[in-house]
Amino acid sequence: GAVVSQHPSWVICKSGTSVKIECRSLDFQATTMFWYRQFPKQSLMLMATSNEGSKATYEQGVEKDKFLINHASLTLSTLTVTSAHPEDSSFYICSALGGQPTEAFFGQGTRLTVV
Amino acid sequence: DAKTTQPTSMDCAEGRAANLPCNHSTISGNEYVYWYRQIHSQGPQYIIHGLKNNETNEMASLIITEDRKSSTLILPHATLRDTAVYYCIVRVGNNDMRFGAGTRLTVKP
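^ Those are the sequences you sent over. The predicted structure of the assembly is below.
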């Protein structure tokens, strides 16, 4: 099946710094990618929908200036957590749409810990 | 605001069939039913999807009721590695995928 690679798989950063997470579709072109956040023992929460070449659509309650999403190519979307705080510590997962009917393929996730 | 409801948890004996139900009573005519699972600390893994007809692949079978208001995912011979959270999702086209709480399946020896 299609492969979505997410990098890094884990990262520890200091409070106040920014962290960039990459999501790549390795063997297909993805016009649409989704970003999720997951807290322990909870389900995935959709943060934003990213369409190649256009601005991301953020879910209610998600700060677009804090979670910067860039989808500059058909195979790469990035999520930057700006001025990270300990409460931003979470498991971030990306998903890319491909195939027919469009299927969603998920990255392996990035565990962010802000200290 | 997920469109599906699933039991919170289920247990299954190793080697037996695991039947995971999902209710999607408000599903529209062009929405597919998708099943994913998430093993601890990993990204979700695609299992199977269907529209109207029952589907089977190497991982599982999907049984969709005639009125499409519910479905059942069947793992024919559950193993310990099938222990995971299973998510049932309905969507169409490029619409976003919103996850409900899912069912935590525990396969016991």
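DSSP finds no helices and eleven strands in chain A. The two ends of chain A are 37 Å apart (CA to CA).

Shout if you want it in another format.
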